[in-house]
Amino acid sequence: MTNVHLVGGLDIAELTFFAFFLFFLGLVWYLRGEDRREGYPVEDDLTGAAHGGNEPLFFKPPKTFKLPHGLGEVTTPTANERDELPTNVLPRAWPGEPLDVVGDKLTSGVGPASIAQRADRPDLDMHGQPRIVPTRVISHPVSVHQNDVDPRGLPVFGLDGGKAGTVKDLWMDRAESCLRYLEVDLEGGAGTILMPITMAEVSRGGVMTDAITGAQIAGVPRTKSPDQVTLLEEEKITAYFGAGYLWATPERAEPLI
Asked: Which of 3, 50, 98, 235 could anchor a disulfide with 80, C-beta 3.0 to 4.6 Å?
């Protein structure tokens, strides 16, 4: 018996390629199933009707995670328990049409103002203590480097130059040892708000944000506690400032050309 071919015209390179292709296909299949554990919405774009929840090709069996610091357990996926469709928008005419907000766009929860429904509790460090707090409640001394400008006491301005208030304190991330927010004491005794440091420019003349106007700063979502910020509150605050890059002024919402 001569000229026997076990694999025909295949060689090692081709076999390796096919093996990699099958592995990669399986990896994508696995990851697309696992991301459903994050509450991935499989629903109709117009009506919000759910497309099932038990199909083995699209959904994974529920898995329970134990949270640290005695915060209980979380089971995912949560079937069809998901956020309701926004009611402050005009109805869509066709699938994929951008949502048009009715009312205040910066707090709409739509588009650049979208938020994730995170837990309404503070983020915790490895010791189970609130992670982000003002410097006034930190037991050890906290100071600004001598080569940097200390924002405390400086006026706060919006993108239009309108004055909104004065920096009252700095909110630090004790786990990362970095600055997260500026606490702004609003004009006229209107209370305090938190401004993300990533959306603020600090100079000796004051603090300016290019996200929203001076008047809009007073509308930043507030925190329930004067010394703590919850995960959900962080989402709302960041979304408010982030939405300003598109909706703070009418000119920003218009096309460049």
From this structure: 50
Q: At 170, is the secondary structure helix, strand, or coil?
A: strand
CA distances, 209 to each of 76, 190, 201, 203, 237 (Å): 39, 19, 6, 11, 14
Say if CB 134 and CB 179 are below 8 A apart. Answer: no
Q: Which domains can be identified in the chain, with CATH numbers?
A: 1-82 (4.10.540.10), 118-253 (3.90.50.10)
pTM over the 0.90 mark: no
Write the pLDDT tens digit of every residue in 97-126: 777 888 889 998 888 898 888 889 999 999
Q: Cβ of 114: how many Cβ atoms within 10 Å?
A: 14
Residues 63 and 37: beta-carbon distance below 8 Å: yes
Count the Cβ atoms, other than its own, within 10 Å of residue 247. Answer: 20
